[in-house]
Amino acid sequence: MSGKPEGVRIRDDFWDRYTDLVRETVIPYQWEALNDRIPDAAPSYAIRNFRIAAGLEAGEYGGMVFQDSDVAKWLEAVGYSLATHPDPELERTADEVIGLIALAQHEDGYLNTYFTVKAPDERWTNLYEAHELYCAGHMMEAAVAYYEATGKRKLLDVVCRFADYIGNVFGEGPGQIRGYDGHQEIELALVKLHRATGEERYLKLARFFIDERGAQPNFLVDETNRRDGRSIWTERRLRPTAADMAYNQADVPVREQTAAVGHSVRAVYMYTAMADLARIAGDRELAEACRRLWANMTRKQMYITGGIGSTHHGEAFTFDYDLPNDTVYAETCASIGLIFFAQRMLKLEPKADYADVMERALYNNVIASMSQDGKHYFYVNPLEVWPEASARNPGRHHVKAVRQKWFGCSCCPPNVARLLSSLHDYVYTADPASDTIYAHLFIGGEARFALAAGPVGLAQQSWLPWEGRVRFELTEAPSAPFALALRIPAWCAGQAALAINGRPAPYETKDGYAVVRRAWALGDVVEWAPELSARLTAAHPDIRANAGKAAVERGPLVYCLEEADNGRPLASLSIPADAKLTAAFEAGLPGGAVVIDAEGRADERDSWQAETAYRPLAERLRPIPVKLRAVPYYLWGNREPGEMTVWVRVSDAAGGKE
Amino acid sequence: MSGKPEGVRIRDDFWDRYTDLVRETVIPYQWEALNDRIPDAAPSYAIRNFRIAAGLEAGEYGGMVFQDSDVAKWLEAVGYSLATHPDPELERTADEVIGLIALAQHEDGYLNTYFTVKAPDERWTNLYEAHELYCAGHMMEAAVAYYEATGKRKLLDVVCRFADYIGNVFGEGPGQIRGYDGHQEIELALVKLHRATGEERYLKLARFFIDERGAQPNFLVDETNRRDGRSIWTERRLRPTAADMAYNQADVPVREQTAAVGHSVRAVYMYTAMADLARIAGDRELAEACRRLWANMTRKQMYITGGIGSTHHGEAFTFDYDLPNDTVYAETCASIGLIFFAQRMLKLEPKADYADVMERALYNNVIASMSQDGKHYFYVNPLEVWPEASARNPGRHHVKAVRQKWFGCSCCPPNVARLLSSLHDYVYTADPASDTIYAHLFIGGEARFALAAGPVGLAQQSWLPWEGRVRFELTEAPSAPFALALRIPAWCAGQAALAINGRPAPYETKDGYAVVRRAWALGDVVEWAPELSARLTAAHPDIRANAGKAAVERGPLVYCLEEADNGRPLASLSIPADAKLTAAFEAGLPGGAVVIDAEGRADERDSWQAETAYRPLAERLRPIPVKLRAVPYYLWGNREPGEMTVWVRVSDAAGGKE
Prior knowledge:
Two copies of one chain form a homodimer.
Chain A: E1 6-10, H1 16-34, H2 46-53, H3 68-84, H4 88-104, H5 113-117, H6 127-130, H7 132-150, H8 154-169, H9 186-197, H10 200-212, H11 219-226, H12 264-281, H13 284-300, H14 332-348, H15 352-368, E2 376-377, E3 384-385, H16 387-392, E4 404-405, H17 412-421, E5 428-431, E6 436-439, E7 445-451, E8 454-462, E9 470-476, E10 482-487, E11 496-500, E12 503-504, E13 508-510, E14 513-518, E15 525-530, E16 534-539, E17 549-554, E18 557-562, H18 563-566, E19 573-575, E20 582-586, E21 593-602, E22 614-616, E23 624-632, E24 644-645, E25 647-650
Parallel strand pairs in A: 6-10, 19-25
Antiparallel strand pairs in A: 1-7, 2-4, 3-24, 5-6, 7-8, 8-9, 9-15, 10-14, 11-12, 11-15, 13-14, 16-17, 17-18, 17-25, 18-23, 18-24, 19-21, 20-21, 21-23
Keywords (chains A, B): Hydrolase
Pfam family, one (chains A, B): Glyco_hydro127C
Organism (chains A, B): Paenibacillus artemisiicola
């Protein structure tokens, strides 16, 4: 299936706030940052590097080896933004940057300011560490987004020349490098370039990189040995083994991989490309690998918030069911990559599970990362925070209790910007072959689809995440029948009512979607009401960190307890298994939000002598009844800094049904 | 009070196994290691370094900068061992080593093979990092132990010459270094040297080091700057601040310190010397600082096992109530240092709290560190182990699920050896002024005391830790009255019966001791029966890690659950608050031990679909009744590797008295 609906535009009470924030604040702010104009911030050097590479300015390269990708991600976000919100001034600025990028490109098509300015003789000698193809990939993604938004080919031509050059450098032929990048990204970008240009050779190159990965002898190991272990990160000589390349998902061929391992962003970017290639080529073996990796990652290595990667050491996966809440990593970029992967799997095979996970990551881990002013970010998205431990226990220094100015590290904020400004791409997929439109996310807006049955226009209005109520109206309808498939969210537990033009309507359930195939008329209204109620959720018994605990959820939202509402220590609190959860809209929270209240218990502490660490359990007094208040996880840390926890002790562990 | 009883000798059913192991296995094995004769082990180089420094052999220095201290700790352990178990062959070997050490000493008294062999021009230029006075201190401790055991002065003379030289180098006078070591140790050693020689100048030098520490401007900072930040550990230039010196307890003067901070072994070695000096000089301000630091450390920063130092980053304290069970450090050496400190506080003021902590650290953290063969050790003593996480989550790599061959790192095993071979020094203190003998630990053996009342001989027989039964017999009695003060262990909750010659006897309670002052006769028998029962213990509500959990204890022993008895995951298990705890002797465990059984519950898991991480709490079924078995913590990890936990969920969190 082609999958890409045309001209979706978001108009949604909940999401407009975020997409507006990205357009009005994040993109302009990032532009200032890229130009080193943010007071009190470390300079980015990113635009300056391009000016130096273009010969317009003298100086030394600045920033990380992958600094170019920040410019690319910004341009990509600009592209998405212009697609729905034309802005001539922003477009002019972008065109100037594109002109600069074109000037920095070499005659042979090569484009990378680090190697141009700092190490001109070292092109393609350190794929393992230097992110050379990674930066190329981001520039390709930017070019495609900008081209699709504006129709302007200049950057697309630049990256096509670059891609053609890369296609000459890499391959199985004599004199070609039979290798791949240490950080996956170009693979998914080449698929996009193929989509924009129709050129098969880009697809072939993507498949080459995917299929070479993990082949023996190991390219990244051999390359490192050829450099005698010289590293751009450390003085120490590197002597990696093939097994070490699990960090880069290059220890075994991708088709043989069964569990998510290594650096989590690298992993999900790669899986995304794998799913793309599986779909386009009908590659069943690759599709099977994608399903295996998806299952392992989302069922055994994913936090309830949609966070992945449980250790900050290498920003990596660890192993099944190891999901500590306090020493967690759950990087923002990794959840964004998980959303990319989920979207590609939906294009491969529309199954609600993929969309359930996509929604989970989006409404929780991803938007929690950004402050309500759009200028502060979490890179690590913990499920349990004790601010004093973050400050004073070095094993928890990486877990920040307060969002950091976004320019402190440059990878996550632009990733949030490009995701949210392209949010319209994640709402639907369409299958022209079966004349089916799938609604995966319930986010309001208008969309058009080209089906075999004819063109379809659809306006969605959604009351999510606060109410389980969605309305679709046919704004354009072909005469031939087609199917509308609405996701039955896992959180409604199968309780979802459909009405067409005001009358309850039956539906067929397929792969987690409510499917209605019929002849539609202009103005037809479909009302969709998945039951949305607050609930307590338990974790698998092998997730040691959550034993005896529950999380509060409501619809797509995960909730958390904050010190601001519940005092401290939060660990003293417990919730009865049969607690009545009361939802109420609280206008005082940023943007307004539904909070959940319950009668809970607090371990009493007045009977403790101040200066005793341990005492007989028999001395404890009855716990104290307390009001518990849970707020949406995405809002945590927007009030005074304090403790936060997603998982709460269940005080009636003896209960449960027979 | 002098505090040092004469000629105590251990004969104890429980402890003989350990002291025999040290004498018969650890000391000989360590000798082989020091001589690089252990197959498949990294060489120590320690003896070889002395041979090179002595001019007997050519070669380069090997091992850590503080490698000399391994030889010293071995000699110290040998000294203690010879004091109670003469062994001519061992003594001959020790004498040879002492000859070698004397040969390695410089004309001016200086002694350190690292600086002699590797950096002869850099003496006293890097006190911050190079452990120069630390190594000197260990050699002094060895010399005193060997002298007191054998009467031989050779090593004592060597260290006196060295100490006199150090006294010339360091001080407030012109041309002297007004500084101190980065790793405290010499301070407590100089106090011992004073005890052995009666020389006041050694005490004065110890006090100089203690009083200079943390003074402004900061010596360690200035010294580092004088070297332009050159480091022996890293290529990076160091630019430490005075605040950074909290790691070395040198950020503020010791008298102003209020909480345990920094590297935990450095801290407790320093506190030990502070308590010594406070006692000897009657320094009330210093005594008050000791009490403050003791209170903070033992009431807010100590694990229930007597472990201290909750992070492996810098092997350090973090802050109050931050006692994670899984990412714990709780280094063996730190608990040994805590025992030193407790012993010195008991000499300063006999209060049972010090002995309670000493007993807790000894019976739990310290002896758990050693395997039952004496050849494998834990450096980190966790309270919760998931072997797969230790292997696959880098944040838990430092927590080993299996004891390591002891020569892998050289600090903890020799420290265990010197503590256990001098265990007799920790059982009693005597206060000649008040004619009182304090029994702090209930460990069998014979002891002699010189009181004003006259010489006293006491034979203790103890059934601990299995039975709450201790028997003292007067083997020598003066005609004048004197007092016997028996510790009332915190674990008996005040329930302790005393009988003299078979008849119940009343006693006065003072500072946690049962005091009986009377005229004693040869053959008098005192029976002491502190009630020893299994109990559940809760942690302070601010210790987040233990919320809703309890530990099983019995007498001085902390218990733990192991996978070998209880299956996995242990996190699935819970114990009712009112569980009946049944104690039974289990001969099958190493050495035989009392285990504790209880009826508990296990979260059911059969209803979980294999591939779901999260589900509604309401779907859970009733927990399954299971038999729980707890074994003494000191025995953990002596069967097949598996999970272990000290803290267990309490399943009836609603209970407790009104």
